[in-house]
Fold each of these.
Amino acid sequence: MIFSSITFLYYFIPWVVLLYFLVPWHLKNSILLLASLIFYAWGEPLYLIYMLVSIVQGYILGILIEKYCNRWQSKLFLISTTLFSLGLLVYFKYADFFIVNFNAVTGLSLPLLKFTLPIGISFYTFQLLSYAVDIYRGKVPAQKNIINFAAYVAMFPQLVAGPIVRYSDIAIQLNIRRHRLSDIAYGVRRFLIGLSKKILIANVLGELVAVFKSSDDKSVLFVWIYAFACTLQIYFDFSGYSDMAIGLGKIFGFCFPENFNYPYISGSISEFWRRWHMSLGKWFRDYLYIPLGGNRVSTWKWIRNILIVWMATGFWHGASWNFILWGLLFAILLIIEKLWILKYLADSKIVKHIYVLFFVIVSFIIFDSQTVRGAFETVGDMLGLGALPFATIQSIYYLKSYAVILIIAIIGATPYPAKLWNKLDNMHIAANIKNILEPLFLLLYLLVCTSFLVDGSFNPFLYFRF
């Protein structure tokens, strides 16, 4: 089940919200857990077993880590839960990748396992790992209530697409949280905005991306159109799902961390990654980069740390060499920025933005490609290094057809629409009009999104690779 579906919008979530607010406080987490298990099992009931086993081992070993704090047994239990969680992730997500590459190197023909990747396994694995490490470090106490712990791990709002919610983020809220009408209203608003970003912008741009991939009449202009559409689609899809997750969390009384902060206005790659998928960046910083020594080491060790972290970041996104290349590209850019280029860009905002956007666009071409070779060919075509003509009738047609949505997406990827909307609060008459119009706009968003879904419009799920 996905958020952008009729089943979720009109059957699942209304019943969950109704039951949640009808039951007494001590049953609310149980309702959330039950709803989350149904949500997860909807499309792949078999894989629910692996999630439940992961929850049980995380719960038991977390308690044991705390019980034997500062003793060798504690470290042993930490290693055990880490190996279990990562082992399950590697088995389902990376086994075939390793087999394919082993066959390529050795010339053997070992059969592939061909497992379907359990949706959300990358996210809940990281939640389990951060929970165990934080207990070991003494930052949080182990959760003794297995219902509360299971609700944390399986919580459906952020299960399939993030943000990555650490136990420390919501430990108190699992036991005590307030349900205010203003928070519920904010949650509904945030969810509908995210839904609109996903269906009305990301999905429409996805159609353009799909047209490009199936076209036999490519040109340099068409490649650039595809590159912009792909870059914007990924942002609105990811940030839209994060908005929906944060909104749903707010409805149920949880404050999930923000995940995107207008990354395309960044003036450096470093800033871009402080604004893009922020929960993932902070996770790797706290649980891999800093334990390796961070930047408080020699230059060569710092370069090693950057390469390790970003190769891991790329590999986390998918079992393919193009994802590893994607991560290493950012590693190289961050190293070059730190050691050389950033000081030369400091005085020119325009040059900095062009530099960031160019490499971000290149990175997402790599991200979206099925193979490394295909990625290099597309980047080469974009730079005019291939044999493609500059433009064709088809490319001009699609530029005209999608010009409005591209412009809306470009403007929407900046903070200016939100700033303009918020400025109305400082104008008395405008604020009153805004208060009247906002619910109408949100209702209109819902109706239009529903019509797109009923019509069976293009509605891809990008997270199946995660």
Amino acid sequence: MSALTDLTIAAARAGLESREFSARELTEAHIKAAEAGRGLNALVVETFDQARERADASDKRLAAGEGGMLEGVPLAIKDLFCTRGVHSTACSHVLDGFEPPYESTVTENLWREGAVMLGKANMDEFAMGSANVTSYYGNVINPWRRAGDDKPLVPGGSSGGSAAAVAARMALGATGTDTGGSIRQPAAFCGLVGLKPTYGRCSRWGIIAFASSLDQAGPLTRGVEDAALMLGAMAGYDAKDSTSVDVVVPDYAAALNGEVKGLRVGVPAEYRLEGMPEEIEALWRRGIDWFKAAGAEIVDIALPHTKYSLPTYYIVAPAECSSNLARYDGVRYGLREADDDLTQMYERTRAAGFGAEVQRRIMIGTYVLSAGYYDAYYLKAQKLRTLIADDFRTAFESVDVVLTPTAPSPAFAIGEKMDDPIAMYLNDVFTVPASLAGLPGISVPAGLSAEGLPLGLQLLGQPFDEARMLNAARFLEIAAEFTAKPAWLNEGAP
């Protein structure tokens, strides 16, 4: 594997600015890695020619001293982001052939800062899944393997293609979206840093909607500084998005000193689940000890309504998905199953266009919004969501950040949980509460399981306080000294 693909974004920027290598050379190295890694199925669209053109343009700007924040940095873009003139389908058959005539605000911000798009990353269909096995274009394979076991593992979801591409050194970073943990959980499964910003920090305009009150864009990278750099480029107020919040975007990278003395770190008892693997519990205790040894104050906190988070999420999110996905009817764009009868055309198009998991969530959402059940389910879930957010507000009166595990297990084999939707949904048990409350969260690789797979620790911050959360994450990164790499990098494409 070329040394250029082992660089961090920060190191790549420094090398480009000092002219140690060109943006074209950096891009070509990642194109070569992406070609070698096609067996992982991480990219569903390759935009290599466009990447070369953008890299050449970056070299001209760098030569003129006009480089942006991410000038010449090759990225993978989750297929949920609309990219002008490039196939954008949310990995669903129902959007086959859709090439948007516009650019999402987040990707427009990245291009403005000089980033280079290598291609569109695979994902669970419409971001509905925790294992990247619901994509119309087939499942993604995690570049990690269990020690002594060749079974292919899931990369997590829904941003599994983004995570696999970064872990396999096919891209320096990637965009993801997080509705209930879809950045943080795949980051934990693939040994990466995954950051979900505060709801409203990044524009949702041009991101294909799943659940509008939960969806939030964020970066997947191989280091905390890289996450800070990408978030700085992605974030910002957007008048086109009514949920975008007009607050200053700080220089996140400049705040990363790793100093946590006096930081108040909350530890919620409710995240100690019955039956949680001992290695997850042990890693959590180790993280607490690292903070304590560095002079942070460990504070036991209560989040009593946490136990209602999953049922609340799996009412609110499907309800919003049912509403958002009603627009895909075969009339204006995407798939159309022709029929002389209009109603039959709708039904045939949606039956053929949506996969089983998406259909399941549409049906659940339609049910909880229907007359006679709205008050019993949806309204009650909204009230519980308020109580969950209130728990965090109370906790943050006495702490600065909250420390928890990211996921209840390491990556599992493809097919292991496919027959049990509830088991799949439980992958989000540690990530969903912050999503319901709109809080920022970050997963940092902090250790390995007994089988040699990465495990993550999660930090949650106060609204729009990503800078302090990122600094705590930087400390965690330094303390953990996580340097393990996927065996796939040495073995080659599967």
